Amino acid sequence: MADITFFGETNFRNIRKKFGIKVDDRRRHFYVVGKTGMGKTELLKNMAVQDIQNGNGIGFIDPHGEAAEDLLNFVPENRIKDVIYFNPADINYPIAFNVMEKVNAESRHIVVSGLMSVFKKIFGPEVWSARMEYILNYSILALLEYPESTLLGINRLLADPVYRKEVVDQVKDPVVKAFWLQEYARYTQRYEVEATAAIQNKVGQFISNPLIRNVVGQVRSSIDMRDVMDKQMILIANLSKGKVGEDSSRLLGGLLSTKMQLAAMSRVDIPEEDRKDFFLYIDEFQNFASESFSNILSEARKYRLSLILGHQYIAQLASGDDTKMRDAVFGNVGTMVVFRVGADDAEFLEKEFAPEFMALDFVNLGKYTIYVKLMIDGIASRPFSAQTLAPNEKPEKIFRDQIIEFSRKQYGTPRDIVDKSIAAWTGTADELDSRPILNPLPMSQQVLYDAVCSSCGKPTKVVFPPDGKRPVYCKSCRKKRMKQDAPAPRADSVPPVPSPSIPRPQISLQSALEKGPTLFHAGGRTARESSPRPFQERRELDKNGLKQALAQALEQRKDAPVKEKANGTIEPGETVNFQ
């Protein structure tokens, strides 16, 4: 194994001298930052090609896919069988990767932390809540104790009471078990739906995608990360956002980095001097960075896991007031390589590179020009400027197709086998096999099968072969069952029975005019015919008779006896004087 990995050449006083970094210094990690198009990915790729050709074990996680595909061209013939080409976009031969497989009790918190960080980053602060984190945390902890668990079990655990009981019965952790038996079991149905709806919605977006489901839904992983590291193999992960989607790329990248950390920490069972160096390249690593990354940066050196990280600007490492990731990076990385950056990053990096370089220098850097703070024999050098190396020329013989074909056969599983295994796990395999085959032919050409009605025993015809399990009904019995199964109308939905109306005679306007006077009722009521009254002559007023009757009435009033006035009474019309 070559002791130095070259990545640049000095440009001081136009003196070009190639330089690199030693293996021991790489164990203190390698950090690259700079704007897009400045040459970051090319620098990482140049270093990875040297590791491949030198026989080193590497992992390369690429969210764009181009660098991962290009690396296949530089794999020599003697290392074809060392390569695992993890390409989720290859839906015909998905590679199994179950992050929940064989996790011991001491490492469960790492898996939970990694998964929670990935989900939190993907869901976003507008969806993520404390209640959501609380339930999801206990869901993952419970599934980690249940044999043959996958990420598909999260939604089933929350939705299927039978499956939930099976899982909880296997849980040994008293705190986790108490949550499901004493707290979750007391949730009302309405509260349970409200509390778990967001989790099922977001997790369902991943497991409903067959591309992701067929990778994380297989029980047995075809990639053993411990073997990859110990045998110095080559893991190239093509997580192209354009092919698998941005969220799916983040999820798979986060799972890979978490599993890599678990594999590195499991090497504690062998002496440190016997551990093989493994170099993990992560481009745009802010997409996959989780809280466990700070542990990798601080502890991975002793497990011989060296990180080479690249991204575009420092603000990607902070989320609001949370600067743990940024602090972990700048507090632990040994070598820093800076391309051209923005003004905010320049002010921040000035503290690391002063007094040699000031903020204005970072902003004005040319393409492929870098400022380097290099770790040399465990001591950080003074910052200096340099140029990155030119891209490697493609070799004459390329074994790209052989590598992909070998990786598919060795680590992939045919899609139909994966679909059947997942269907069997969900309990829908029998239903899928027993479904009637829908015949799109016309009725005259459809094949009919003889059967006996399960209700009345009469012979009938059906369009599917009877299996003796499903009930079969003739046409009349089927109609009766449909009526019985129909929901009864609600009392408030039954319309009121109208009272019998009294028939009213109706007459047209023309007939009414012909018959004589007609009365019409207001308010829109039906006209009622009236019988014609006989005509009566009008009599003249007898004024003399009226005068005589009035005179007689006045005379009678005068002749009437006058009542004596009682003392102290006032008659109507009487005037009273007060003196």
Automatic annotation (TrEMBL):
Type IV secretion system coupling protein TraD DNA-binding domain residues are: 22-342
Disordered: region residues? 480-505, 521-579
Which InterPro entries does the UniProt record give? CxxC-x17-CxxC_dom, P-loop_NTPase, T4SS_component, T4SS_TraD_DNA-bd
What is any Pfam family matched here?
TrwB_AAD_bind
Q: Which CDD domains match?
A: TrwB_TraG_TraD_VirD4 (cd01127)
Basic and acidic residues: compositionally biased ranges? 526-545, 555-566
Specify the CxxC-x17-CxxC domain's residue ranges.
Answer: 448-480
The domain of life for this entry's organism is: Bacteria
Feature: compositional bias, Low complexity: 485-494
| Family annotation (PANTHER family) | AAA+ ATPASE DOMAIN-CONTAINING PROTEIN, UNCHARACTERIZED PROTEIN YJGR-RELATED
Protein's name according to its UniProt entry: Uncharacterized protein
Q: Which organism is it from?
A: Candidatus Wildermuthbacteria bacterium RIFCSPHIGHO2_02_FULL_48_16
Read off the lineage from the record.
Bacteria, Candidatus Wildermuthiibacteriota
